[in-house]
Amino acid sequence: MALSREELIRAVSAQMPAKRWKHTQGVMESAVALAEKYGADPEKADVAAILHDVAKYWPIAEMEAIIRDHNNRLNVELLTHDKQLWHSEVGAFVAERDYGVSDSEIINAIRWHTSGRVGMSLLDKVVCLADYIEPGRDFPGVEHIREQAHRSLEEGLIAGFDSTISLLLSQRRVIYPLTVLSRNDLIAQLKIMEVGS
Ligand SMILES: [Fe+2]
Ligand SMILES: [Fe+2]
Q1: Which residues are close to ligand 2, an ion, with C-beta < 5 A?
Q2: CA of 13 to the centre of ligand 2 (A)
Q3: Overall pTM surpassing 0.85 (yes/no)
Q4: What is the CATH number for 137?
């Protein structure tokens, strides 16, 4: 890593309002705790958490330009979906370009922290679930997700994605298909674990 942890924190926190930085600190805390509980690398979880929302407050046009300019590496199709999804893709890109993060596990955990993906890595799961349950989160149903997170990463994430999908359904908003596929894949993973145990 090109920057020290302190330098990274200073640079990333300067790009968002205090409230979002507080959320990021909560995600750092929860991601490290989940990594320790479930056997992921706590240092990688920490770096991915610090950077996960780095692009969240970037101007929409800037995010769109990055995705278009790097369409050989980034998913241009995202531009036809909710803008909320763009910051994950752009965040993963700038983590590498601007902050010298070269570890693909960290980059992927940032990239997939909003939607999940089919075949989520251990670190993907840790960061995505930490984003749902960090101590500052206070939305209807968060306690249920926290309870499930004690059972397993997969149970926690299924509860998290269920809450997102339910909310979108109730608001008659478009559901990003990958979130549904990620949820289904986690259920399949649990079934395989049950058979194996
Ligand atoms: Fe995010
Ligand atoms: Fe977040």
Answers
A1: 53, 131
A2: 13
A3: yes
A4: 1.10.3210.10
